[in-house]
Amino acid sequence: MLKEYKEFLFRGNLLDLAVAFVLGVAFSAVVSALADDVVMGTIARYLDLESLADITLGPVLVGTFIGALLTFLIVATVLFFLLRAAARYQRSAEVETPDTDEVLLLREIRDLLDAQRHTP
């Protein structure tokens, strides 16, 4: 049972997921700092968000909600551009390589076998 548990822990998918989680937490901290300090600081210069912080609509603080909404939009935008760049990089990495002589020979054999099967 211990051997199976060890195999479960060290499977590639689980390790990839753990690395992705740790990177996600670190990335979240960076994007939150960007959203809170840089973007919200710039917006706060031009808009009076502190006056909105005191306004409530029922139990919702309007300023807090607007800040959370802007943070979400910034995170979503950054992720969009990051995934778009990753997809573009992946497509460029998938350049077709020329077939080797062995592959060409195997394709020819496959085509001959298919032709033999389909002849009456």
Structural class: mainly alpha
Radius of gyration: 27 Å
Average the pLDDT over all residues and give the rounded result: 78
Helix coverage percent of residues?
A: over 70%
Widest sheet, order of strands:
1-2
- Cα separation of the termini: 57 Å
Sheet of most strands: 2 strands, antiparallel
Q: Uncertain segments of ≥5 residues (pLDDT<50)?
A: none
Strand percentage, roughly?
under 5%
Per the principal axes of the C-alpha atoms, what is the gross shape?
elongated
Number of contiguous helices: 5
Order of helices and strands: HHHEEHH
Say how many strands there are: 2
Describe the structure in your own words.
The chain is mostly helical. Helix content is 82%, strand content 3%. It has helices spanning 2-9, 12-46, 49-53, 62-93, 101-118; strands at residues 56-57, 60-61. The chain has a two-stranded antiparallel sheet with strand order 1-2. Helix 2 crosses helix 4 (62-93). The protein is elongated and about 85 Å long. The mean pLDDT is 78.
Supply database-style keywords:
120 residues; mainly alpha; two-stranded antiparallel sheet; 3% strand
Short note summarizing the structure:
This protein is mainly alpha-helical. Helix content is 82%, strand content 3%.
